[in-house]
Write a sequence for this structure.
């Protein structure tokens, strides 16, 4: 298993010029053990493909659960494959909230993705209300078990991103201890499905990651990198976070 995945979720931000500038300032040598995944808006996937170094992995932010046909505005798994996409974010809390994506819809999207050999980044996480009511573990277990089963765990590569909703875009990151506790719980949940296959699943953290908090997060035993929103829009900041992961990997 790769030790670290440093992933950028650009959300609905960027332009051709932004993409050009971003990759022009990507000066870090990319380490085989520390992967970079860039997830732009679909309309810039071609630009990323043209501008990014070869070993930068291409990702998308969403997928249709249909394979093709009359679904205006949707983008299919095979279209993403056609654009050299390897990963796709599925179940981000912004899609669960603003686009009413239920666990059932997310399960269908996940299955469509793996059928096309795309690797999902399955996002899970609790709201502040759920945390305060001590529902975090139940909620996350539910989100995972409604999508992941033994067949998937045995046959399809994927990542899980733990993204507490209260930490996304708020500047309030989970402490490394809180994040690690949930990551460890997620590993335990996967162990219950298949304790051998679960070892190969990396769990990345998302929610206000920046170059000041990355070191302490990445040092935790169950944290395998990050899904980064705001800080990934600043190439300098993103490079710094990448460098931190690389340094820890080489320690
Ligand atoms: P953030 O977003 O880093 O801006 O908190 C993370 C995400 O939503 O994936």
């Amino acid at each position: 298993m790769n030790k670290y995945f440093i992933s950028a979720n650009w959300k609905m931000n960027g332009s051709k010029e932004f993409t050009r500038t971003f990759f022009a300032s990507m000066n870090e040598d990319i380490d085989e053990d520390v992967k970079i995944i860039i997830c732009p808006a679909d309309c810039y996937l071609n630009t990323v493909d043209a501008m990014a170094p070869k070993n930068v992995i291409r990702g998308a932010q969403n997928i249709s659960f249909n394979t093709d046909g009359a679904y205006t505005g949707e983008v299919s798994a095979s279209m993403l494959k056609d654009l050299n996409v390897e990963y796709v974010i599925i179940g981000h809390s912004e899609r669960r909230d603003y686009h009413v994506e239920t666990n059932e819809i997310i399960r269908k999207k996940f299955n469509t993705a793996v059928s096309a050999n795309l690797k999902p980044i399955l996002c899970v996480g609790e709201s502040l209300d759920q945390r305060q009511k001590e529902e975090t573990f139940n909620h996350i277990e539910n989100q995972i078990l409604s999508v992941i089963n033994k067949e998937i765990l045995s046959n399809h590569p994927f990542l899980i991103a733990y993204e507490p909703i209260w930490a996304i875009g708020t500047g309030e990151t989970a402490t490394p201890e809180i994040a690690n506790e949930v990551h460890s719980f997620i590993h335990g949940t996967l162990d219950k499905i298949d304790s051998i296959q679960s070892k190969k699943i990396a769990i990345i953290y998302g929610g206000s990651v920046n170059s000041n908090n990355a070191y302490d997060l990445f040092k935790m035993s169950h944290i395998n990198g990050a899904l980064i929103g705001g800080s990934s829009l600043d190439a300098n900041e993103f490079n710094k976070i990448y460098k931190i992961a690389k340094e820890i990997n080489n320690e």
User: Anything to note?
Assistant: The two ends are 17 Å apart (CA to CA).
